[in-house]
Structures are given as structure tokens and as C-alpha cells.
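FIELD: query
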Amino acid sequence: MSDSDASTPFDDLFAPEPTQPVAGLTPARAPWKVLLVDDDPGIHAVLRMALQDSVVQGAALQLMDASSNQEAKALLADHADIALVFLDVVMETHDAGLLLVQHIRQQLGNRMMRIVLLTGQPGYSPQRTVVEHYEIDSYLLKSDLSADKLYMLVYAGLRTFETLQQLAQTQAVEQLARDLQQANVQLSLEIAERQRAQEKAELQMNELRLLNQRLADAQSQVLQSEKLASIGLLASGVAHEINNPIGFVNSNLSSLKRYTESLVAVIDAFEAAEQNSEGDPTARFEAVDRLKVTLELAYVEEDLKLLLQESQEGLDRIKKIVQSLKDFSRIETSDTWREDNILLGLESTLNVVWNELKYKCEVHKDYADLPPIVCVMSQLNQVFMNLLVNAAQAIEVRGVITLRARQQGDEVWLEIADTGSGIAPEHLAHVFDPFFTTKPVGMGTGLGLSISHGIVQRHHGRLEVRSAPGEGTVFRICLPIRQPVLEP
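FIELD: result
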């Protein structure tokens, strides 16, 4: 295939290489001619992308394309000064590339042209067999193609080609063979050294990846441990919240059992009177009426409605607490990024920690409508819990916690403000430091705010604090509506 053959498929893929210098420009030296022989257009595209801008010894590369043995032979006939050939082994036949090697070395008698075999099917011609029986310069699997390896092969091949040309002009054949051998050995050593350096760099990179993974695992374990510790502190309060409705539901069931027995007794008496067909009907049902009075059936009927209503309210309260715990932990979604309503997350967390708050403060809410945001809700619930519990602990006797929510541009923000004792200026800059705490020994780990700060940062948000001694504290959580790193 020639450069000017417009009917070939490669001219549709690649513009022809310039064969004449541009007017007004004088190149430093003629370009190196490099022939790419492969029946896969994708390989041509990869090789051209990697090599088209390469410069070796001050000269650019003139790339030529052939898709078969015959097209390559035609180009070789027209361009005897081709310096380097990248050659596929399997094309129109399984050994088309090897036959072309024989054609170059034997029929054309060209020993200077450098030949690099490329194959994606090494099983057809094992590397050792090819190297032993064919006069080639390098052998490379297509799966190992990289820009660095290709450049090294081109560099080594063209330097060798240039050396052969010079030696052919100035030295005898025996000296040429010795110099070529020495040059090949040196180039092989350089290539081996580069490969060793690359392998060392890849090993170091793998070690860094492993260390990063271990760090991420450790961070996840610390987060889970802190979350479990926080839930443990709240367990007694949650149990108390559940025990209250369970207690009166259990008491109501005892009353319901007695009322049921009374109703069954009245029904049995009514059925007995109904089945007795002898005597006056009025007299037969007098016993039923007396039993109704004895069992206070009118009171039972009225109290039964109240018992059922109270029991239903108690069960609804238990259901709400359990649902809040489920929403808080998000067991069914784990750490999945998805669109969520953070106000619902804040409310579920508020229900979980309510026993910690209700005896010390009132909770005021000032919410605006917020759009759903992309987040990991279980992690944000951990932040809400840490800030709510801290706010309650900052209030010494009785105070107010105010919850605010707004949208501002592409962000939403939540504020948790308390009327507690506030934070001293010298401590304010350290509140997000790991293990920093002003609480008495045994009252806190110093990890809550640090973990919360890390969670908000992973959401590409900000956790801000304002405080002054005696004026309370305000924590503001700013979060993007969309996560930029997760967008396709």
C-alpha cells in the first residue's frame, strides 16, 4: 500500500505523511521512516498517538501504514530507506508477519532495518522460537504496549539503525558485527535498567495504595467505634423512652383481659337464655341483665375504648422510636451515596437522643424547605447526634437548643445553636482536633467533633463554629446539593 493510495481504509483514518518540507522551513535533518504493519486499525491509532510527536536525534518520524503482508512489501519496494518496522505476526495468515521478516532479511537482503514484532496471540509463535529462528530486534506483546516502552523501542531501534549506516560506510563487516553486538548489549542494559526502575516505581505505588487502603479502613473503624460508643451512651435513654409506652400497654392488656372475660361471660349467659325456649322470654333474660349490672358492662364498654386508644398511642410511640433508630443507623443502605432529605435525618436523630435533651432544654425549630442532597445519610446522622448531645451537655441547668435550616445557592446549611456556657477563645481553634476535649476525664473521648468534621469534609462541605463564653455556641453544617466528584 502506498502513501497516495486513496482507496485504502487507512487514508480514511489518517492523513498522509508529508513527504516534502513546508515552504520557508528547513528541517534539521530528514525524518526517520517508520512502517506500521497491522491488520487492526486500532493498533495503528495507538501507535500513531504514541509516536507521531516523537523526535529522535533531532529528527521527527514519518509514519507509514500497511494492513497486510502484500501492502507492506509494496511500501518496502518504494522506500528502501525505511529504518524501523513495527510488525504484527498474525494478519491475513497466522505467520504473515514472520514471512515478511524473511522477505526483508533474505529476499531484500536488508540487515540494517530494525524489526519489532508485535503480537496479541503469543501462543501461535512462542517468543523464544521466534527469536531463535527469525532475525528480529525485539518482540512485544500488544497487551504490554505503553508510551514509554514504545519510545524506548523506537529510540533503541533508530539509534541502532543509524549506527549500522555509519558502520557500513566506515568499517569492515567484522568490526560492524562487534560494534553492533556491543551497542545492542548496552541498549539492552539501558532498557533493563529502565524496566527495573519502572518496576520499582510500580512497587512503591502499590505500597502507597495499600497504605492508603489501611488508613481508610482504620478511619472507618474509628468512625464505627465512636458511633457505637455514642449509641451506647444513649441506650439507657432510648430504653427508657420505649419502656414507658410498653409499661402502660402491658397494664392495659391486663385490664383488657379482665374486660374480655366479662364480655365472654355476658355472651355465654345471653346464648344460654336464647337457647332456653321454656317460660317467659322476659324472665329468661333477667339473669343476663343482672350479670351486666354485676360486671359493670357500661363502664367496661367506655373504658375499653380508652384502653385501646392509649395502647395504640403507646405502640405508635414505640414504632416511631424504632423507625428513628433504623433511620439513624441506615442498616439497609450502609454507606451508600444517594439523594436524601437531611431534615428527616435530623428529625430521626432528634428522636433517638430526645431522652438526653428533654430534661435540660427546649428545642425550637426554624426550617425552610430544602431540596434533597446527595449524601451518606447514616454518616450525617452521626454528625447531628454528636452536635445535639454536645449542645445538651453544654447547658448546665435549663436552656434552649435552636435548629435552623436554609438553602443558599448550590448549598444547604443546618445550624445547631445552644444557650450553654460557650467555648473559651483559646479552645475554639482546637475543637476539631482529635482527642481534644474540655470535659472531665471519662466524660468524652475528644473524637466526636473531629469525626464530624471529617465526615462533613468528605461530603465536600464545611463545619463552622461560633461561640463566646456565656453566650452559647452555634455549629453550622454547610453541604453541597450535588457531589461534584460523583457526577459522571
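FIELD: remark
Residues 341 and 371 are 7 Å apart (CA to CA).
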